[in-house]
Structures are given as structure tokens and as C-alpha cells.
Specification:
The structure holds 2 protein chains of 2 kinds. Chain A is α/β, with parallel strands linked by helices. Chain A is built from 10 helices and 18 strands. In chain A, helix 4 crosses helix 5. Chain A is globular. Chain B is of the alpha/beta class. Chain B is 29% helix and 27% strand. A 9-stranded mixed β-sheet of chain B has the order 9-8-7-10-6-1-4-5-11, with helices on both faces. In chain B, strands 2-3 form a two-stranded antiparallel ribbon. In chain B, helix 3 packs across helix 6 and helix 4 crosses helix 5. The longest helix of chain B has 17 residues. The chains are: A alpha/beta, B alpha/beta. At the A-B interface, helix 4, helix 5, strand 7, strand 9 and strand 10 of A face helix 4, helix 5, strand 7, strand 8 and strand 9 of B. Strand 18 of chain A pairs parallel with strand 13 of chain B, so a sheet runs across the interface.
Chain lengths: 348, 291
């Protein structure tokens, strides 16, 4: 009886077809209050750079998903949208979301890459999923290049608080390459009103007895631009003495410049600013057009979060402060005199 | 039960014996066994230098316990200070070369009871989070008394990967809570309330044990071990294992092609007063926005 040689089995044909057709990335499109997170739009740009197809994935509560899907369908660079709704997906709890992702990425998957922003939410989810699929993951990448011939993907990413850049390659033997993207390294993808990709619903995979329950979320409310994507940032350090002084000093300047407000770790630890404003190696990494550091000494860990800013201005009364080594424009002065003067003269 | 080797262990085991024989209460609530994985990394204050061969950084510098792991050890010790006898054991574990034993001693001096050293040669390539998670899973599975709570740093300041906790929770199919800034554990209900630092603010979760928690900066401020604690730590046990003992292969899957310096940022520009500052801003296209 004739037996098919292994090379001709349907599954290996499918694998060969997938390789020949190029990569197929699955991009997690995160959202809040019906708006797609800017970080996810950067992840989409990175996914496009792989070449090949890009499918966006929208997960959430039934009341939220449809609106987000309508927006996703118009995104430049997407070749398809998948979505799945469940009350269990409302708060992106990794234990709830992982089973669906594992199902989408099972052995017979056509996806070759999984991409997300390096957001607090996605970076809690993707490594869990990767491990359950026995896959490594690459965090916070600043560049990506895929080689179809070898089916390997090469990334750069910062290590040692950005004091070194590592180039790592995920070889062809890595079945699905999972990675998170540093949003400041990739321009956010935009909408194309004429674009209209297919949206496909996928059944949620609900967990019978979730061990984790969401209790509450407290977001700092602000009319200011969001720190992670703002074009201008005014940032304060421990020299600002108290929460009242921090706000009283920085807010007028931020208002005058239309800037977001950031803080050094020292300022956050001392209670002058909310943790969501922390800029640094383990806080937010920002790369605005303008970064003004006020009363910030410039520790290595802080620099890690802002040294890719286009123009860095520093105001500090200590001429030896390390921040001056990276500042394009440094002013050695008492901030309590310099900042009000700056605000007044800017408004003239 | 093997003969207790240290005075410490004698004291603990005899107090447990008293506890069970003296009471006619219904069976005791399971006591917490806490595991704290730690990593020996280049000290956070060191100015690292990339090697001329562009394959790595100069590691002939001061090393210390990863700051986030110090916070993890501290949190375990504080849990015991709060819950007292309800915390049965605090065990620390590390994967590292022989010198990593010093890091374990620091953790023991901070208040951990015992340690496990998964020893690898000095020349071994740095393990990846997936490999580390597999090794930790093996450690947990061989613990006779089980593990209820794993507390570890959210990221190591050398690779800044930030994946190990999530991967371990995934492999074990346990609950996870990353970037914890507050942790409250109730051994009676076996539920933990965790506050997490997320983009934009804070989130509160309720998690059933067993649980993996990764620590964020503001969870606590770690103590400095006192000299008496350091001396006492010398008598605490460090169990030595190899990856082979755990049937785990720590060979990295990802290939490090190159390690390079970041583009140099040339700063140092100075102005003398606010007027000059404003001129520079204007030159670069930055003016006030219309109110």
C-alpha cells in the first residue's frame, strides 16, 4: 500500500506554506474607554516591519469590544482583526486571557509572531502565555528584522538601564516569536479612513475558577497629555520639597508649554508625585521632543527613561549634577526663581 | 524527620511540637511556605562598560543582590513579622556561579531561614527567564512541604527582561500579581490582596494562593542586615544543586549576536540665565501654547 512520505503530509505542507508565505504577526490591540492605546499602535508598526500579514487582536468585555473593533478595522498595516468578548476579559487579567491566546497559538497556528506594547498589562500577559507554550519572549525591543530564509528574527533591546544595547536573534527553531515593543522606538500607526479589513469573532475561552479577581483600578485623572506619548514633558525631582510645591511649581510651566508632567523616582518615593508619573529604568520610558528636568540630579536609572528625548533642558542649582552631562541646554540656578521667571517670560 | 542541624532548626521544630500537642483545636490552617528567588547582578550604582569584543559588558565590577529581589526578601521577612508562626518557612534560591552564595548569605542575614544554590560554572552563559522559571518550578515541585507564595523582583537590572515571575506562574498555572506595591496575605482564607503599579495608576487584585508576586520599587524599603544577623546567617543551611539535579537545561535559546554602546548623547550645553534659555527653546521651535 502506498504511504505518503512525511514530507507530503498535510501538516508539513501547511508549515512549508506558512514559511513560504512569510510571517504572520498577531498584535495585541489594547484599549481603554473605547480608545486604542497609543503603545499598541507602535506595536503595530513594529509588526509591519516583519513583512507579511498582521492580524490585530481585540479582547475585552462585550460592551467595549465592538467599538474598538470598528476603530481597529481602519488601522493602516492591519490585514485582519480578530476579536473575542467576555466579562472575564474586562480587566485583561493574565490568568483569564492566557487560555485564548494559547489556543490561538497552538501547534497548528499560522501565526509566527506575537507582538504587543511593553505596557504594564501586556508584559504581564505575554510572558505567561509564552511559558505555557514553551517559548521564550523578548522584552522592550527597539528594532526588529525578520529573515524569511532562516525564519529567524533579530531584535535590539536596551539592557543595564539602557547603558548597553543587546542584539538578540530568535532562531528558526523558535516556533512563535513573542515580543513586546518599546513604543518610543516605533512611530504609532495611523488610521486610514478608506481601509476596511475583515473582523472575525473568536469564541472566548473562559476559565472555570479564576484564582484572581479584579477589585478596583485607580487612574490619575488629568487633562494633560499622557506622559508616555506626550511631545513635551516637564519633570520634577526631589528638590521640589513637597507635593504642593511640586504641583505649584511645575503645573504653570506644563500648562504654558502644553506638556505632560513627569517625576524622578526620588520625587515619587517622597510622595510628591503619583507613581504613574515616574520616568526611569523601571518607570516610564519617554522620548518627547522636549524634556525639561527640574531639580533632578540625573541618576543612571532616571537617564534610562529619558535620554532619547530630542531636546533635554535641565535646571538644577548643583553644577555637578550628572543631568548636565546629557542636557543640551543646562541652567545652573535656583529652580524656585528660574521656573516662575521662565513661565512669565514664555507667556510674553 | 532528619536531625536538625542548627540550633535555629531545633528551636523551630520544638515549638511546632508544642503547638500541635498543646491544642485540641481543629486541624491547623496550612502555614505559609514562602520561596524568594533572588539574582546576583552587577550593582545598580556601577557605571557599566561594554567590552571591546562587543559580546558583553565588563563583569569585573561590584555585584549585589538585584534591588527588586532585596525588596522581595524584605517583604517575606515583614510577612513573618506580621503573621508570626503562620509563616512556616522563608526559603531563598538563586541560580549562579559559586560567588552567588554571598548573595544567599545576605538574604539569610536579612531573615530568610534557608537557601538553595543552583550552582552553574562561572563561564556558563546567563540563563534566560524561561530556563529560570523551569528551574524554579522544579525546586517548588520537590519541596516536601510545598510552596504557597513566591515573591521575586519584577525585573533584574542587568537584562531588564521582567518575565520570570509571569513565566513561573504560567508554568505552574498559579495566580500572578506583578509590580506589587502592597501585599496583604491571609493564611486562614489563603487569599492575598495585592495593589499593583500599572500605567496610569494603581490596580487592586484579590488572588487565591498559591501565588507568584513580583515586587515593584515602593513595596518596601529593605533593611540592612545587622552584624548579629550576619553572624547567625553563617549557620543557616545552603543546599547545593545543579541544573542536572533538577532535570533542567539552562542553555539559552536566544542568541546574543552583539552588545554595543548606545549612541552617545553629547550634553553639557549651558546657558547663563532664563532669557538665554528661552532663546534656545525658541530656536528649537518651542514656544508657549495659546491659552
Amino acid at each position: 500500500m502506498l504511504r505518503l512520505r512525511p514530507a507530503l503530509t498535510a501538516r508539513s505542507l501547511a508549515r512549508r506554506y506558512a514559511t513560504a508565505a512569510g510571517p504572520h504577526a498577531l498584535v495585541l490591540l489594547e484599549h481603554r474607554a473605547g480608545v486604542i492605546e497609543p503603545g499598541s499602535l507602535s506595536a503595530l508598526t513594529a509588526a509591519q516591519q516583519l513583512g507579511g500579514q498582521v492580524t490585530g487582536l481585540v479582547l475585552g468585555a462585550p460592551s467595549e469590544v465592538q467599538g474598538v473593533v470598528e476603530k481597529a478595522k481602519k488601522l493602516k498595516g492591519l490585514t485582519g482583526v480578530l476579536h473575542s468578548s467576555s466579562e472575564q476579559y474586562a480587566h485583561a487579567i493574565p490568568e483569564a486571557v492566557s487560555p485564548l491566546l494559547e489556543k490561538l497559538l497552538s501547534d497548528s497556528t499560522s501565526y509566527t509572531h506575537v507582538v504587543s506594547a511593553h505596557s504594564s498589562s501586556a508584559k504581564s500577559i505575554l510572558p505567561r502565555v509564552a511559558a505555557r507554550l514553551d517559548l521564550p519572549a523578548v522584552s522592550d525591543i527597539t528594532s526588529v528584522e525578520h529573515d524569511s530564509a532562516s525564519n529567524s528574527t533579530t531584535f535590539t533591546r536596551p539592557i543595564y538601564a539602557g547603558n548597553a544595547i543587546s542584539t538578540v536573534r530568535a532562531p528558526g527553531s523558535v516556533r512563535v516569536k513573542v515580543f513586546t515593543v518599546r513604543s518610543t522606538a516605533f512611530k504609532a500607526s495611523t488610521a486610514d479612513e478608506s481601509a476596511q479589513v475583515e473582523a472575525t469573532a473568536v469564541d472566548p475561552v473562559e476559565v472555570a475558577d479564576l484564582p484572581t479577581q479584579h477589585v478596583r483600578t485607580d487612574l490619575t485623572k488629568s487633562d494633560r497629555p499622557e506622559l508616555g506619548s506626550a511631545g513635551r514633558v516637564v519633570s520634577g525631582g526631589r528638590a521640589l520639597k513637597s507635593a504642593e510645591t511640586f504641583n505649584a511649581t511645575l503645573e504653570p510651566l506644563a500648562d504654558a508649554l502644553g506638556a505632560a508632567i513627569g517625576a524622578s523616582r526620588a520625587a515619587v518615593d517622597a510622595g510628591y508625585a503619583d507613581n504613574s508619573l515616574q520616568v526611569g529604568q523601571t518607570g516610564k520610558v519617554v522620548a518627547p521632543e522636549l524634556y525639561i528636568a527640574i531639580g533632578i540630579s540625573g541618576a543612571i536609572q532616571h537617564l534610562a527613561g529619558m535620554k532619547d528625548s530630542k531636546l533635554i533642558v535641565a535646571i538644577n542649582k548643583d553644577p555637578e549634577a550628572p543631568i548636565f552631562q546629557v542636557a543640551d541646554v543646562g541652567l545652573v540656578a535656583d529652580l524656585y526663581q528660574a521656573v516662575p521667571e521662565l513661565v512669565e517670560k514664555l507667556k510674553q | 524527620m532528619p536531625m536538625p542541624r542548627t540550633r535555629e532548626a531545633l528551636v523551630i521544630s520544638s515549638s511546632l511540637a508544642l503547638h500541635t500537642s498543646a491544642s485540641m483545636r481543629p486541624s491547623a490552617v496550612r502555614l505559609l511556605n514562602i520561596l524568594v528567588p533572588i539574582k546576583r547582578t552587577v550593582d545598580y550604582a556601577v557605571k557599566i562598560r561594554v567590552n571591546p569584543d562587543q559580546k558583553g559588558v565588563d563583569l569585573n565590577v561590584k555585584h549585589s543582590m538585584n534591588p527588586f529581589d532585596e525588596i522581595a526578601v524584605e517583604e517575606a521577612v515583614r510577612l513573618r513579622e506580621k503573621l508570626k508562626d503562620e509563616v512556616k518557612s522563608i526559603k531563598v534560591v538563586t541560580i549562579g556561579p559559586p560567588k552567588a552564595a554571598e548573595t544567599l548569605r545576605t538574604a539569610l542575614a536579612m531573615g530568610a531561614d534557608s537557601a538553595i544554590h543552583i550552582e552553574v560554572p562561572d563561564s556558563a552563559p546567563a540563563p534566560e527567564p524561561l530556563g529560570v522559571a523551569k528551574a524554579l518550578r522544579a525546586v517548588i515541585q520537590r519541596e516536601k512541604d510545598g510552596v504557597d507564595l513566591v515573591i521575586l523582583g519584577k525585573q533584574a537590572i542587568d537584562d531588564d527582561a521582567g518575565q520570570t515571575g509571569q513565566m513561573l506562574a504560567g508554568l505552574l498555572d498559579w495566580a500572578q500579581a506583578t509590580f506589587a506595591s502592597k501585599l496583604v496575605v491571609d493564611p486562614k482564607t489563603k487569599v492575598a490582596e495585592v495593589t499593583r503599579e500599572i500605567d496610569g495608576g494603581l490596580e487592586e487584585l484579590k488572588c487565591r494562593l498559591p501565588l507568584v508576586v513580583s515586587t515593584d520599587l515602593r513595596l518596601n524599603e529593605p533593611r540592612y542586615a545587622s552584624l548579629p544577623s550576619i553572624m547567625k546567617a553563617k549557620r543557616k543551611t545552603i543546599e547545593k544543586l545543579t541544573p542536572a539535579d533538577l532535570e533542567v537545561d539552562l542553555t539559552p535559546i536566544l542568541e546574543t549576536v552583539k552588545v554595543a554602546e548606545p549612541p552617545k548623547r553629547i550634553g553639557g550645553g549651558k546657558v547663563e540665565n532664563v532669557d538665554q534659555l528661552i532663546a534656545k527653546l525658541k530656536e528649537a521651535g518651542f514656544t508657549a501654547v495659546k491659552p
